[in-house]
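so i finally got all the pieces together for this one. its two components total, 615 residues if u count the protein bits. some of the lines might not be protein, just check the labels. i wanna see the whole assembly predicted at once instead of chain by chain like last time, that was a mess tbh
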Amino acid sequence: MLRIAAEATLGDLELDVAAEVAAGECLALAGPSGAGKSSVLRVISGLLRPRRGSVACGERVWLDTERGIDLPPDERRCGYVFQDYALFPHLSAWQNVAYALTRLPRRERRPRAVELLERFGLGDRAEARPRTLSGGERQRVAVARALAVEPAALLLDEPLSALDARTRAAAGRELAAVLHAAGVPALLVTHDFQEAALLGDRVGVMDGGRIVQLGTAGELAAEPASPFVADFTGAVVLTGVAAPAADGLTRVTLDGGGEVTSPEPAAGPVAVTVYPWEIALAPRGTIDPGSARNHLDVEIVSVTAVGSRVRVGLAAPQPLAAELTGPAVTAMHIAPGQRAVATWKATATRLLPLTPQGSDEVRH
Amino acid sequence: MRSAWFGIATGVALAAALAFLTLPVVAIFVDSPPADLISALGEEGALDALWLSLKTTAAALAIIVVVGTPAAYLLATRRFPARALVITLVELPLVLPPAVAGIALLAALGPSLTFTTGAVVVALTFVASPFYLRQAQAAFASVDRSWLEASRTLGASEARTFARVAIPTAVPGLMAGGALALGRALGEFGATLMFAGSLQGVTQTAPLAIYQRFSTDFDAALALSAVLVAVSAAILLTAKLFGGWDAADRR
């Protein structure tokens, strides 16, 4: 069990976080850059000393500002995978791993380092310098090196962001397996919610130095506690003013035009959230009434393929997006500049009351 | 075409700089035939001066590297109060006229060292160390901070991080700084003359010997100059080869 609580001032950012991670569990901290995610890892590893705080791993206390305890980084046994991996450029792959093996007698270090590299399928790259390794190979050397310290906790800073899209999926699956096999608390930092959902057993969304919501990825996507979390998890966020309607549902008049319906009770300024995959597109004037209650006149702004899906950017005039399959886009001749009708069910429409300050948190 | 005339202008500028900087050096060799060179070196005092120059420069460089490397690392990696002031003070000898440096050393250390080889080493160290410190500080500042931090999380102490990561990755910059300091020490004249004197075999380094022969035996001065040019060029070349090889291997 890894426990951390820390308060620190970092330039304009007030960091104030508390979290617990169980052995064998991976907590993913996700948020935009500048949210203070990496600083959490730096506090745990001892590279950053908070104004107030404590870090305990299992029985051992690494930091307790109240009691004046502050172990240096080299006595904390954190396996830290740095952003861009921070491999030593003047050492070969096996020497990078062996650097962490000083507790072994000198002659045992090389065989042990090569053994670790072999576990990651890099046995034949042991003599290579980092600059000759591919991005995926560097990432695996960095993970092998972090494991070589026999870490009491694993810390990973954007472990996949330096990889190209093709390597990323495979590396992500491999990393998830490694994290669970290690059996120690793991804390991972990413700006990508999907990466957090893939690798984290739980996800903490960070904004402005705080963890604003903590839960499983599914919980966060289904019940975002704020428009910021909804936006970050990928939902479409529209703003408007809600009023109860005669049929017991809530009608929201959107800023800039249009009206949507939701079963959730609300009144006053609200953020309307809906996921892009809940939204369907139909040609204008051919609306099949069906069961979908929400229809918005939209203009198609962009068409972007994301893997096997296509994200269609829309203006209502507030920005929103629909996710369709490639064949659907082809069949409907969807192209930028055309007009269409976006439809989705009222039950897929969530409402979050906006406080005056809360509206500042809606970011795009 | 704009780019054509600009290309010509920069080319002309480089050619002018090259000619101006190399012609005097070439002239030394043209004016002193190899036979003269060898006979001049056979002269008593010339070899003494050359040998003393090499010894004192080596001693000064050793002191500069041993003390300057950790000092430059501290300046490059730590933020502390009055850091900018410390850096400025350390660089002061760069802009100090050598004669003033000699007077300053006399004022600080008194005349007890004068006419000893130790005084030569002190003078060389004083004027040459800022060249190394500046370059070494820049070299350490450009070492990726995450390498140093990774080293700490991998169980290495600050001292081990300095020795095993910071120095090896800063080596090209450290070599360049060493070459600059070495060149400055080898050519040192004013501070040595003022502080140590010009006693043959004890404090008379090669530049001082050249100056002494300048008015009485110009050919001998020319020959000694040629030898000094050769030694300096060899040092510069060695440093470039080392630095270049290492940088190419790294990037």
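Confidence is low (pLDDT under 50) at residues 245-251 of chain B.
DSSP finds eleven helices and no strands in chain B.
anyway lmk what u think
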